[in-house]
From TrEMBL:
EC number: 3.5.1.88
Function: Removes the formyl group from the N-terminal Met of newly synthesized proteins. Requires at least a dipeptide for an efficient rate of reaction. N-terminal L-methionine is a prerequisite for activity but the enzyme has broad specificity at other positions.
SUPFAM superfamilies registered for this protein in UniProt: Peptide deformylase (SSF56420)
UniProt-recorded name of the protein: Peptide deformylase
Cofactor: Fe(2+)
Record: active site: 141
Chemical reaction(s) catalysed: N-terminal N-formyl-L-methionyl-[peptide] + H2O = N-terminal L-methionyl-[peptide] + formate
Name of the encoding gene: def
Example of a GO MF term: metal ion binding
Positions of Fe cation binding: 98, 140, 144
Length: 185
């Protein structure tokens, strides 16, 4: 089932999410719905707060954005109760966007290497190191479960330039090619 994506302005997007256990109600169905929702919206990641749930769950699929012949370098994962352990390297800027903030993009500086501990959909524990675009997508989604939006990482001048767009999204005055829920509607 395709779920509505919560637009900028919803308090759940600014709240630190809570850990879950394997007896979380209908978790398997929720994850399936999140994959379907993410793909319908042409996203590479989706966090539970973006569908209105303040829980530490997100999924990523970078395989779909990898160049032909490099698909095996991408990742497709469900991350539950993730905890960052370490981020290292020289910051690099890359233009990011967000399904909860349609039509807004901006350069975000992130460190290129991330070590993270998480549980998969079977609640098996993992600790892995991710680099490059895989690290970036995980960092973006991880921010969501910590109540941080990519717009908070933008330079001050860019923040001023997008202020009106953000207010329009809050009011529901934006078009998206996927189902959304706005606080102002």
């Amino acid at each position: 089932m395709i779920l509505p994506i919560y637009g900028y302005g919803y308090p759940v997007l600014k709240k630190e999410a809570e850990p879950i256990s394997k007896d979380y109600p209908e978790l398997e169905q929720l994850i399936e719905n999140m994959w379907e929702t993410m793909y319908k919206a042409s996203g590479v990641g989706l966090a539970a707060p973006q569908i209105g749930l303040p829980i530490r769950l997100f999924l990523v699929d970078t395989v779909q954005i990898m160049e032909e012949g490099q698909k095996e370098m991408g990742i497709k994962k469900v991350l539950i109760n993730a905890q960052k352990i370490e981020e290292v390297g020289e910051p690099w800027a890359y233009e990011e966007g967000c399904l909860s903030i349609p039509d807004v993009r901006g350069d975000v500086e992130r460190l290129p290497q991330l070590r993270i501990r998480y549980q998969d959909e079977n609640f098996e524990e993992h600790e892995e190191v991710f680099t490059g675009i895989n690290a970036r997508v995980i960092q973006h989604e991880y921010d969501h479960i910590d109540g941080i939006l990519f717009t908070e990482h933008l330079k001050p001048i860019k923040k001023r330039l997008i202020k009106r767009k953000l207010e329009n999204i809050r009011k529901g005055k934006v078009k998206a090619d996927y189902r959304m829920k706005f606080i102002g509607k």
